[in-house]
Write a structure and sequence with these properties.
The protein is mainly alpha-helical. The protein has four helices and two strands. Bound molecules: heme C. The site of heme C (HEC) has 25 residues, from helix 2, helix 3, strand 1 and strand 2.
């Protein structure tokens, strides 16, 4: 019983630990231009989350935007350059974090 509780605590720590790591990655690489709940230079992360959560390939599409960039989707002249500094594994974990923003509500 004691060990089961311990195992549960460790599992929680791992889950919250990885969500925290993805959030840090997003803060470092994306939040210069994107804000959580408001459109700035780029659309709000929460709006991106809602848009792609409805799509079963949403995670892959976000990864593609990170790797290839985006142009004129959210408005004429709007552009996001490809994020060459973000590798595929990091892009995936950022995409998961973005999608998780709309699952919370
Ligand atoms: C230099 C500024 C900048 C940075 C850094 C940046 N973005 Fe963007 N992002 C934009 C802009 C501007 C747009 C709108 C582009 C468009 O309308 O096509 C955009 C659009 C997007 C979209 C598409 C939204 C849609 O409706 O299809 C996604 C997804 C996205 N960004 C995710 C990210 C992620 C994840 C990161 C970090 C890895 C990031 N962005 C970093 C400026 C930025």
């Amino acid at each position: 019983m004691k060990y089961a509780a311990l195992g549960f605590a460790v599992a929680c720590l791992l889950v919250s630990g990885s969500a925290f790591a993805s959030e840090e990655l997003a803060k470092k690489n994306c939040m210069v231009c994107h804000q959580l709940d408001k459109a700035g230079m780029g659309p709000a992360m929460q709006d991106i989350s809602k848009k792609y959560a409805a799509d079963k390939e949403g995670e892959q599409k976000i990864v593609t935007v990170i790797q290839k960039g985006s142009k004129d989707v959210t408005g004429p002249g709007k552009m996001m350059a490809p994020m060459a500094a973000v590798n595929e594994a990091d892009a995936k974990s950022i995409a998961k974090w973005i999608l998780s923003l709309s699952e919370k509500k």
